[in-house]
Every structure is written in C-alpha cells, then in structure tokens.
C-alpha cells in the first residue's frame, strides 16, 4: 500500500508540475506588403471590417440573402465540417484523462462422468472489478500538442464558415447585379428590334417611292435580324441568372424577385469607407483561418518530436473473485488490486518517427507560405478594388455623356435619311454607336456594383467575429 501511495503521489506531482512542450516557438509570418492601403488618408475610415447589412440596401436582395444563409447547401456542408472539427477536438481532449472500465463475469463448469471418473463434478466462478487502462502521463506534451492542433483546426473551421458566408453573400450580390444588367441589355435589344423594324418598314416605303435602293433595304433587314438574335441571347442569359440565384438561395425564389433586380437605383451602397492601414486585412476570416492552420501545424511538430521519448502510462485494477455470484458481496469473496506504471520506449521503427517529424516540419512551412500568400493576395484584391473605386465615377460620367451624344446623333441621322440627304449606311453607323454607348454605360454600372462586392469580399467580416471563438 505504501508503494502504491508513493507511485500515485509521484505521478500527481509530475503531472501538476506540467509537461515539456517540444513544439517550436510560434512565429507568425510577416510578408512584404505596404503598411498603408492605396487610399487618401484624409478620406479614410477607421472601420475595421464591413458587414453585409452595411452594403446591401435593396430590401428584396436582403430577403434573398437571409433565405440563402439558411438554405444554401454549401453552407450546410461547411457547418457539418465545423461539427466534425469540434468532435475531433473532443476526441483529442479525451487523451488527457484516465479511462475507467468495469467488467464482471460468471462461469460454471464441470467434468463428465467416465470410467476413469465415475462421478461428475461442478464448479462456479464469479468476478467483478474496475480498471484503469493505460492512462498516459503526458510528460513530453504529445497529447497536449495533439489537442492544441485539434483546437486550432476547429478554430480554423469556424473562421472558414464565416468566410463561406461572406463568399455566399458576395456571390448572390454579383448574380443579382448580373441579372439586373442582363435585364437592361434585353430591354435595349428589344428597343433596338422595334427601332430597326420601323426603319426597315420606312426603307421599303422609300424603295417603293424610288427614294431608296435594294441595298438599303437589305441592310435594314440585316439590322433587324441582328437585333432579334441579340434579344434572344439576352433573354436566355436572364433565365440563366435566375437559375443561378435559385441555386445560391437553395430554395425557390421569392415571388416577383426578377422584377425587383435593377441597376438604378443601385441595390448596394455606392461608397464604402475604408481604413488606411493594411492591418485591417488581418481581420478577414480567411486570413484568420490560415493563421489557425499555421498554429495547428506548429503544434503538430511538438507531437511528432514527443514520439522520440518514452511513453509512461499508469495501469491498475481492483475487484473481487468468488466461487459463486452471491459470494462477491459476502464474506466468501476475495478482493485484490494492482497498480503501477508502464513504460514504452521506442528503439527502432524503420525511420517512421523521423519521416513523421519531417512531414510535420514541411507542413508547417507550407502553412506559413500559404498564410503569407493569403495576406499578399488580400492586399492585391483590396488595392485592385480601390483602384476601380477611385476612377469609376469619372468613367460613368463620360459614358453617360456618350450615351446622350449617340442618342442625339441617331435622331439626326434618321432625319437626314428621311430627307434624302444621307443613305441608310449613315443611319446604321449611328445605330451601332448608340447601341454600343448604351451597352458600355450598362457595363460600367455593373462594374460599379461588382466593385462594391469586391470591396466587401476584401474587407468583409461577420457579425459574430468581434470576439475570438472559444473552444467548446
């Protein structure tokens, strides 16, 4: 009994004293990027992150996003993976605690009657006990580092879930904007069909009156068919846009959703305040997930190093044995116990431990490079979006004036053709310029909305990330 007390006391003291952590000191990567984002410091904002409610102003679009955040199947897959990571963390934690077991058995046996043994004999045996099965004392931090790696992987999955939500919201906004743009392009194509058809009818009348020729009629007819083909193309694109929105939402679209998608008034805010310091990028969930994976890889090195050292476990059991079941609780039962340490010392494994350590070191290097690349990519994405934001207003203003000028030019060309001053070729040129100018204006309005989404992707956050997640 004194020996057992000594062993238990020694194990407790060593456990309370803590174990040796063989993981290397954690060092976060510091890629070479400018300290400031390319914005005017005087006009910058101190806001650290954007939330989707801050940029989406159209009520139907907000309603669609709310549905998608519940019904989207990709998000459901991500949520399930978070639950898997949480369960794996619980599994890793379980190694820190002893495992108790209980067992009981009742046996009855005997011998058969034979010439050598004319009488039969019977015997009973009953046993019951409790046991501790190999409780490893984590002196070298193998279990603790495995737990740390699982914890960081769980945190990374949480951040990945937030990043997936941001990506979904951005994809829905982009699909909504594309639907609105394709609707306007379809309306423009249908307007062109009507205008070209009227010009075609007028040209035939002028031909009958001797004021036009067959070439003018054929050119007018070709313009009508071209416009009809483009209208059919844009009609198909509108249907495809609706299919994409339905897929992203994961459910049927709310009634009247197609009619509410417009570019003007804009469904998103036109200006987004951006902080000047590039440090705000570190709040991005994808960067936080990458750093969590780097921490997990760092902890895995400690677990791999611990495999070079002995594994010390405690085993023990206590129970009773009796000739019958009733004797287990009576005076006929015999009690006993055993308790002691178990040492497992690795000697030769064919290079398995060395290869495992090399693998974890390489995985840490890969995670570090991935984290630094993610930071560089985040800066580039943000800088690109800010470059567009700085010039989009000037582009829109110029294209708006272009659309007005080509509209007037088309009207003048049609009047000159009707008066017999110009042939129909001049009208066709004016129609092409008008159509091109309107298309460019719609494309610029679409790009403005897409750039707002790009800034949200670059700087977006989720409302439940103001505090770091805690382990379950």
The named CATH superfamily: Outer membrane efflux proteins (OEP)
Order of strands, main sheet, comes to 1-2-3-4
SS class: alpha+beta
The CATH class turns out to be Mainly Alpha
**Distance linking N and C termini:** 40 Å
* CATH fold category name: Outer membrane efflux proteins (OEP)
Q: Please give the domain count.
A: 1
Q: Helical percent range? A: 55-70%
Radius of gyration: 38 Å
Q: Biggest sheet, open or closed, and with what strands and sense?
A: 4 strands, antiparallel
Shape: elongated
Number of strands: 4
Low-confidence parts, pLDDT < 50 over ≥5 residues?
11-17, 465-472
CATH architecture annotation: Up-down Bundle
Notes on the structure:
The protein has one domain: Outer membrane efflux proteins (OEP) (Up-down Bundle). The chain is 61% helix and 11% strand. The protein contains ten helices and four strands; from the N terminus they run ααααββααααββαα. It has helices at residues 2-17, 52-55, 59-71, 73-94, 142-208, 214-249, 257-260, 285-306, 352-418, 424-459, and strands spanning 100-111, 121-137, 311-322, 334-344. It has a four-stranded antiparallel β-sheet with strand order 1-2-3-4. The radius of gyration is 38 Å and the shape is elongated. Residues 11-17 and 465-472 have low confidence and may be disordered.
Characteristic terms for this protein:
11% strand; 472 residues; disordered C terminus; alpha+beta; Outer membrane efflux proteins (OEP); four-stranded antiparallel β-sheet; 4 strands; 61% helix
Outline of the structure:
This protein is of the alpha+beta class and 472 residues long. 61% of the residues lie in helices and 11% in strands. The chain has a four-stranded antiparallel β-sheet.
């Amino acid at each position: 009994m004194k020996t057992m007390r000594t062993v238990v006391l020694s194990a407790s003291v060593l456990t309370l004293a803590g174990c040796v952590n063989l993981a290397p000191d954690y060092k976060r990567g510091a890629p070479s990027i400018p300290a400031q984002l390319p914005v005017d410091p005087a006009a910058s904002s101190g806001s650290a992150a954007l939330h989707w409610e801050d940029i989406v102003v159209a009520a139907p679009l907000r309603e669609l996003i709310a549905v998608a955040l519940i019904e989207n199947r990709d998000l459901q897959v991500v949520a399930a993976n978070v639950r898997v990571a949480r369960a794996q963390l619980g599994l890793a934690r379980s190694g820190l605690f002893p495992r108790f077991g209980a067992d009981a058995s009742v046996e009855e046996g005997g011998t058969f009657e034979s010439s050598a043994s004319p009488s039969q004999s019977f015997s009973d045996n009953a046993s019951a006990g409790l046991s501790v099965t190999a409780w490893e004392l984590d002196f070298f931090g193998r279990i603790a580092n495995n737990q740390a790696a699982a914890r960081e992987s769980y945190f990374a999955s949480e951040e990945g879930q937030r990043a997936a939500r941001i990506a979904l919201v951005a994809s829905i906004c982009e699909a909504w904007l594309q639907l609105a743009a394709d609707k306007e392009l379809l309306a423009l194509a249908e307007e062109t069909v009507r205008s070209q058809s009227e010009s075609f009818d007028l040209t035939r009348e002028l031909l009958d009156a001797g004021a036009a020729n067959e070439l003018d009629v054929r050119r007018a007819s070709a313009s009508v068919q071209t416009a009809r083909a483009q209208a059919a193309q844009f009609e198909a694109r509108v249907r495809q846009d609706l299919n994409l929105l339905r897929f992203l939402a994961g459910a049927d679209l709310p009634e009247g959703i197609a009619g509410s998608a417009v570019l003007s008034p804009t469904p998103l805010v036109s200006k987004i305040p951006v902080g000047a310091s590039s440090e705000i990028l570190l709040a991005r969930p994808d960067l936080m997930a990458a750093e969590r994976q780097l921490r997990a890889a760092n902890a895995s090195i400690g677990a791999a190093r611990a495999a070079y050292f002995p594994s010390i476990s405690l085993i023990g059991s206590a129970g009773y044995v009796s000739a019958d079941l009733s004797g287990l609780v009576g005076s006929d039962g015999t009690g006993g116990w055993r308790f002691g340490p178990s040492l497992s010392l690795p000697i030769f494994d064919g290079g398995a431990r060395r290869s495992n350590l090399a693998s974890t070191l390489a995985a840490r290097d890969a995670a570090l490079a991935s984290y630094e690349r993610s930071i560089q990519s985040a800066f580039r994405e943000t800088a690109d979006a800010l470059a567009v934001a700085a010039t989009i207003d000037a582009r829109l203003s110029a294209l708006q004036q272009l659309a007005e000028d080509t509209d007037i030019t088309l009207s003048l060309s049609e009047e000159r053709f009707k008066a017999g001053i110009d042939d129909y070729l001049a009208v066709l040129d004016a129609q092409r310029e008008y159509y091109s100018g309107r298309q460019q204006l719609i494309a610029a309005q679409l790009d403005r909305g897409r750039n707002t989404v790009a800034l949200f992707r670059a700087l977006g956050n989720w409302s439940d990330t103001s505090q770091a997640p805690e382990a379950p």
